[in-house]
Each structure stands twice: as C-alpha cells, then as structure tokens.
Amino acid sequence: MNNNIDLLILDKMNSEIDGTEVCLRVRNNEQTSKVKIMMLTALHNAESKCLEAGADAFMTKPFDMNLLYKNIDAILN
Description:
Layout: E1 7-11, H1 19-27, E2 36-41, H2 47-52, E3 57-60, H3 65-76
Parallel strand pairs: 1-2, 2-3
C-alpha cells in the first residue's frame, strides 16, 4: 500500500473480503497503521465491529452525500 494514502473508504460487505478484515490488516501493518479509515455498510448493527476493527468513522447506507463529505472533512482535519 502506498503511504501517500490519506483515507480508505471500505464497505463492510465487500464481495471478496469483508471490509473489517481489510481494516484489521491496514491497522496491523506498520506502514499503513496511521491511514484514516471510514467504513460503510447497509447493516445497522455493524458499527461496533467496524470500530473495533480500527475504523475511524462509520456510516450506515443509505446516507446523504453531504454528510459523507462532512465526515471525510472531519476525519482528515
């Protein structure tokens, strides 16, 4: 992973690998552990799993794009 990445936006229910697994791998890698991570999901009961995996923020789909932009701005600043 490139260390120029500021933010990863991951979906909890990715078809290949669960987003929380990707989040854990990013957090456990010394080169990427400081990258900010936002998790998205349609599952309303997944917030704690996403945050426990190391996500900095969590949003439930569907969501308003303006709220997404505000959350991104808050994470990066």
